Amino acid sequence: MKLSGVKYLADQGIENIWKNKMMAFATFCVLLISLMLVGASVLFYVNIDSIIGGISDKNEIAVFVNENTSDERIAAIKQEISDIKGVSSVTFDSKEVAFQRMMESMPDYQKIFESLGEDNPLPDGFRVKVNDIEKAVEISSQIRLMPDIYYVGVSQEFVSILKELRHIVTLIAIVIIVVLTSVSMIMISNTTKASIFSRREEIQIMKYVGATNAFIRTPFFVEGMVTGFLSGTGAFLITWLTYDSLYGILTEKVGVMNVIGLGNILPFETIRLYVLGAYLLTGAFVGALGSVLFTRKHINV
C-alpha cells in the first residue's frame, strides 16, 4: 500500500472519532478508569514489594536489656546472642548512642527531643543482624528466654503482614484487569458498531469495488488505537499528580516512615517512564485489539 493510502486510512480513523464523539468519549472514559485502577493496583504492589525488600535487607532484631545491667552481663549477653545459629553480627548500642540515632532518623521531632533534656528514655541494647529474615522470629524467641532481656523487637511480623497484603493486592489486581478489560471491550464494540452503521453505505461501495479487508478495517484499528493512546495519556497525568501528592504527604513524616519501615516507598521520578510506557502501550493495544476483533465480527468481509 502506498504512503498516501496509509495516510488516507489513518485520517479516516481519526475522523471516525469525531463523527462518533459521544461513543468515543464513553470508550475513552472507560479505558481511562480501567487503566488508572489497574495502574494503582500495580503501583501499590510494587511499593509493598519495595518496602518488604528494604526491611529484609536490614535483617535486624532490636534487643534491649534491663536497666542497671552490669557491663560484664552485657558482654555475656552479646556472646550468648552471637552463639545462636543464624546470627551474623551483634552490635551494642548504649542508650546515648541509640538516642542520637533516633534523633537523626526523626529530624521533624527535634523540639520534642530537646524538651527531654538529660532524660534519656531509651535502654541499652543490641542490634542483631541475621542471615535470613525468615529465621528472625525463631532467633528472637531464643533471645527472649535469656535473663536480663527487657524487649526484643523483630520486623518479621510486619513483613508477614505486608506479604499477605501483597498477595491480596495481586488477586484484586487480576480481578480488576479481567473485569475492566471486558467492560472496555464492550464499549469499544459499541463504538465500532456505531461507526460501522454510520458508514454502512460507504463500506458496501468499497466492497463492491474490490476493497480489501485490511483497507476496510484499518480506519477502525486507527480509531481504537488513538482512543486507547489518549486514555493512556490521561491516566498517566492523573496518576502522576495523585501519586506525587500522596508521596509528598508521606515524606513530610520521613522520620516516622523510616521507623515503621516505610522509607522504601518509590518516588514517582524513578518509575515515571515505565508507568508512561505501560499506560500508552496498554491503552493503544486494548483499543486497537478491541476494534479489530469487533470489526471482524460485525463486518461480513
Structural class from helices and strands? alpha+beta
Strand content range = 5-15%
Helical coverage, percent range: over 70%
Number of strands: 4
Number of domains: 2
- Overall mean pLDDT stands at 77
Put simply, the count of helices is 11
**Secondary-structure element order, N to C:** HHEHEHHEHEHHHHH
N/C terminus separation: 19 Å
Radius of gyration: 30 Å
Task: Describe this entry's structure for a reader.
It is a single chain. The chain has 301 residues and is α+β, with helices and mostly antiparallel strands. The chain has 2 domains: 3-55 and 159-298, no CATH class; 58-154, Alpha-Beta Plaits. Helices cover 72% and strands 8% of the residues. It has helices at residues 3-19, 21-58, 71-82, 95-105, 110-115, 136-144, 156-198, 200-208, 213-251, 254-260, 272-298; strands at residues 60-65, 87-93, 125-130, 149-154. A 4-stranded antiparallel sheet has the order 2-3-1-4. α2 runs antiparallel to α7 (156-198), α2 packs across α9 (213-251) and α2 packs antiparallel against α11 (272-298). The mean pLDDT is 77.
Outline:
With 301 residues, the protein is an alpha+beta fold. Helix content is 72%, strand content 8%.
Question: Which key phrases capture this entry?
Answer:
single chain; 301 residues; alpha+beta; Alpha-Beta Plaits; 72% helix
Secondary structure blueprint with pairings:
Blueprint lengths: L2 H17 L1 H38 L1 E6 L5 H12 L4 E7 L1 H11 L4 H6 L9 E6 L5 H9 L4 E6 L1 H43 L1 H9 L4 H39 L2 H7 L11 H27 L3
Antiparallel strand pairs: 1-3, 1-4, 2-3
Helix pairs in contact: 1-9, 2-7, 2-9, 2-11, 7-11, 9-11
